[in-house]
Amino acid sequence: MAFLLSTTVLLLGVPGSDSLWTVSKTTAQSGGSVTIPCHYHWLYKDSPKFWYKGKSWLTSSKLRPTSQEKRPAISFLNSPDELVTSMTMTNLQRSDSNRYWCAVKAQGSYLRTSLDLTVTEGTPDLSAASNAVSGQEGGNVTVRCLYSDRFKDTERKWCRSGDLHSCQTAQDIEPSAGAALQINDTDDGVFTVTLTGLKKTDAGWYWCMAGEMQVPVHINVHSRQLSTDANTIATLVPASSRASSASTQTETTDQTSTVSPKQFHPATTQRSPSCSTFSSALTSRSTAPHTVTLSSKDVTFEPKITYESRDLIWLAALVCGALLVLMLPVVSWKLWSWHKKVITGVEATEITTDLHTNDSADLLDNEWTNASVVQFTTDANTVLIT
After folding, report:
1. How far apart are CA 256 and CA 297, in angstroms?
2. Are 105 and 48 within 8 A, CB to CB?
3. How is 185-200 classified by DSSP, letter by letter?
4. What is the rounded CA–CA span in Å between residue 217 and residue 214?
5. How far, in Å, are 194, 201, 302, 304 from residue 40 at the CA level?
6. What is the CA radius of gyration of the chain?
7. Counting Cβ atoms within 10 Å, is residue 231 exposed (0-12), middle (13-18) or buried (19+)?
8. I want to staple 12 with a disulfide (CB 3.0 to 4.6 A). Which of 19, 109, 153, 247 is the partner?
9. What does the DSSP 8-state code read for residue 43?
């Protein structure tokens, strides 16, 4: 399986294959701009993409993004969802006419395809009134392709970018009011392309094509739901109402910040000027969307714990916990020391008692021995006297 995949990649990597494609020739006006799309195969979606400039690939130089002050200013955009990487050049000069290369690096080698850009001082032979147009789902969009007398006798086409089989001319399409694609070409230097009933799949890159020249045009299709929601909100809430509501909200916020709880107490019999102003301001806006009218009876005040008191409670709890943690080892050590002393005292008492008992026995033995000696001595003296 790996061998088959690598073989497929190698086949797709041959320059000129369907793995990488772009326009072959395009043109732009000096001082203007051009955006060139380059399509790549989904296998190279995560591969790095590059752009080069030079008549030959071996002598070409790599292009890098430049600031708007440069001539030309160059920027790149990769769109993985469309499988397109594009290069945009602004502030063009005639010296920017050259061959450009779109390249993808895969497995240590570069896949590449080239195009020729011609920058002219006057109006290009083929151009588009706008290179980027937008429309809503289900709506219509129109593209105007402009051509010079050079292509007056040349067949003009409208193509899906990179798909030559999708190219169509005005003669290929029968005029119909409900047709999804309409092309109107009256040989007056403009042919108009209209797409109706737009779908999300219609978004992407297209070409105005005449002979070997192509001009890229990007069509963007917006979701109808998002546009409808935005229009509905703008219709329901006019700008004047939104501005007055914002000012009223700011005014009431400033007023409520100066009202004390006593002024809203149910037992109050007379309203303060701030309270009446607050109530009248809200009542006058009762016709605006999402407006709430408050009265003094609707407002109640309940005791609450302030942040300061809660902080003190947490601080006291933390201090007590820290003291307990610090005192626990000391108390444990004291208890253990006291326990050791008690055990040592009991053992000492037992040893002393044993010593006293042994001493008493020794004394008794000594007294009996001494008595026996005295008695024996007394008996011997008696015998001798006798």
Report:
1. 15
2. yes
3. E-SSSEEEEEE-S--G
4. 10
5. 27, 18, 67, 65
6. 50
7. exposed
8. 19
9. G
Alpha helices in the chain (DSSP H): 2-12, 224-236, 239-256, 273-284, 307-385
d(C-alpha 225, C-alpha 238), whole Å: 20
Cβ contacts of 127 within 8 Å, gap of 6 or more: 27, 28, 29, 145, 146, 147, 208, 215
CB-based contacts of 294, cutoff 8 Å, min separation 6: 278, 279, 282
Contact call for residues 182 and 196 (beta carbons, < 8 A): yes
Q: How confident is the model at residue 164 (pLDDT cuts 50, 70, 90)?
A: confident
Other CB atoms within 10 A of residue 45 CB: 12
pLDDT tens for 63-104 read 999 987 778 899 999 999 999 999 999 999 999 999 999 999
Encoded tokens for 330: 């000391």
Burial of 54 (0-12, 13-18, 19+ CB in 10 A): middle
Amino acid letter for position 266: P
